[in-house]
């Protein structure tokens, strides 16, 4: 991973954001409850897990919403989607979902559906981007300064050809990053979101966004 530098060092006109800034618009939320079921294997047929069915449903239904969070489009810090969306994997220890996948999940997986637009969570400067069918797949990393603390947000597994950012460029909160895909080491269409404190230490993105998105 490339050594990160503060956003302000690259672009002095990019200002640090504070979650305490006041907003002018009210937050909005859409709530949809999604159900699941399990197909039991019999007579040689394979079983399909609830998680796999949810992934397939997500791919077939872009912009699925759920009561997982409330976004505020006036907040200087926002969620990566304009409304709450289903979540499939939390930050922390887990059973590895695939061969080669980690047993400690360094981010949060969100499944609004393949092709759903991903947005930047705060103002910042693009540190790095990449596009491959291994690792993070199509991804972007953005450096931010929030209340004097440096963070890096990572958006991974996006669709080929959807990336809207270039390394070294400034970004504003809510700006399009790319669209949800299934590239790299992925088990289905989703956004893998990481948040790195001081550019390298992973923290729980869900808890941090809950604490910092202004309602």
Can you tell me about this structure?
The protein has 215 residues and is α+β, with helices and mostly antiparallel strands. The protein contains 3 helices and 12 strands. The strands form 3 sheets. Strands 1, 4, 6, 7, 8, 9, 11 and 12 form an 8-stranded antiparallel beta sheet that branches. It has a two-stranded antiparallel sheet with strand order 2-3. A hairpin with a 2-residue loop joins strand 7 and strand 8. The longest helix is centred in the N-terminal third of the chain and has 11 residues, at 50-60. The chain starts with 6 loop residues before the first helix and ends with a helix. Residues 1-6, 8-12 and 27-46 have low confidence and may be disordered.
Q: Report the C-alpha radius of gyration, rounded.
A: 17 Å
Q: How far from one another are the termini?
A: 34 Å
Number of helices: 3
Approximately what portion of the residues adopt beta-strand conformation?
Answer: 25-35%
Quaternary organization? single chain
Number of strands: 12
Largest sheet geometry: 8 strands, antiparallel
Give short descriptive properties of this protein.
disordered N terminus, single chain, 12 strands, 8-stranded antiparallel beta sheet, about 220 residues, alpha+beta, two-stranded antiparallel sheet
What's the quick description here?
The protein has 215 residues and is α+β, with helices and mostly antiparallel strands.
Per-chain topology:
Blueprint: H1 7-10, H2 50-60, E1 87-89, E2 92-93, E3 104-105, E4 107-110, E5 117-119, E6 124-130, E7 138-146, E8 149-158, E9 170-171, E10 176-179, E11 191-197, E12 201-203, H3 205-212
Antiparallel strand pairs: 1-4, 2-3, 4-11, 5-10, 6-7, 6-9, 7-8, 8-11, 11-12
